[in-house]
Amino acid sequence: MDLLLGEQAPNMNGSTITEFVLLGFSCSRTVQLFIFALVLACYTTVLLGNVLIMVTVWSEPQLSQCPMYFFLVNLSLTDVSLGSLAAPKLVIDLLNNGHAISYEGCMAQIFGFHLFAATEMYLLTLMAYDRYIAICHPLRYTTIMGQQRCLGLLILCWMAAFIHSTFHMAVITRLPFCGPNVLDNFFCDSLQVIKLACSDIYIVEKLEMLNDSLVILPCFLSLLVSYVTILATLCGRFGKSSRKTFSTCSSHLTVVGLFYIATVLVYLKPSSHSQLEKMASVFFMVVTPALNPLIYTLRNQEMKVAIGKLQNKCKLFLLSQREYICLSEHLKEESDGAQ
Question: Which three-class secondary structure state does DSSP give residue 25?
Fold first, then answer.
């Protein structure tokens, strides 16, 4: 009888639903097409901009051996991963008006969101620590920020983010979902998913809030202390070197500011404005990762020089390929004439 009614057998945690329905952007078709164009443009920028940063750093030995750019490459990789979580599906949903996501896909999206968002917070904190050591302890910089130390800090960063996201999954996957399955968003927001559980969620919400706070607050305080110390040190110096240092730090500060503004918009959003919540989520997951490579390439002089060198290498490569093709055709014509 249950099969005739289309009901599903309960899973190990008591859930009976197999998919969630994402309402997405319930607005006019014109507005949906505008959002489609915006998300597609931003996601294209996320892919092209961050890949450009990674290729530029890898092609320039002076940058690839610098700890700051080592962390920047990993930040670009994280931005691509974070942007790819929801943007491709959102673009397809806006075109096809399809808004369903499987239970497993929803859980994977929640896990990936917390993994990459936490990793980005840790990476921004590591980059601030790197700038603090470089400016406030320049004589000990190469000793403190050696390659092995940087690699160890990066591994620790990913491990901490993995533990954070695993805790989220351990809590959410134990909840039974047997009633409504509609989420008023374009992706699986863990806070909204928890509210659909058919059990008491008071303790779960407190655990989720505590888990997020253990990532956000220490990172924010570390960033604040690092940059207050850096600015205090720079204020006591004058000249071209201090202006160059401040220019490098300002790029990172701009990225940090955008990321934490987006975090505040997502987590401290007014609950009565669902469309505003969704636009805040789009800003956090798509727009911010698209702005990061633009900031680092437009405001960082070293990146500008490295990109210029990369362009010259590409031109020389294309020119050599063209000459090779022309030479091959010439030799072929001579051989044909000799025959």
Answer: coil
